[in-house]
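Reopening this one. Same input as before:
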Amino acid sequence: MPPGCGVVCVLLMVCVGCWGWHVHRERLYRVMNRFLSHATNRIDSKGRVSVPSMFRSVLSALDIRELYCFQDFVFPAISAGGPELLDRFERQISGEDPFSPQANQMSLLVHGGGVFMRLDQEGRLMVTDFIRDFTGIDAEVTFVGRADYFQLWAPHVFAETQAAAREERRLRGLRSG
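Same output, byte for byte:
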């Protein structure tokens, strides 16, 4: 073996090991910056609900401290994400004639149907009348990941809506992949 080859081999092993760890770490980060899955939590006697830890991890990773929450346009759910979610809607509105019906409708939904909310120190969200009245949420909240935002649903409504969506895809012959 030529002199120095052992050092090169050790360096290559260390570099390859670090590279693999970095790729694994980057892959883990990609997974942890999306809201995925769903979980149901009970509302406490003070009207608060714990946001699932997997969702709090994403909020922390994305440095989201204030939630923009709005009444979903299609489902009886509250959608919640960071301020950039509101920014995205406002960019869409600004691309329209400000006096057009489309811009006015979007503003009515985005601004008139939205609020900013914060989690408390323990990661709980106050379940306000804004949330309850629109969703029918009573004693429990189902949190549903939607990639770059999440939703709050009444548990039975989410289960029925998800089952209907799955059945519709099955009937249309659509597969998951």
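So the earlier flakiness isn't reproducible anymore. For the record, Residues 5-32 form the longest helix (28 residues).
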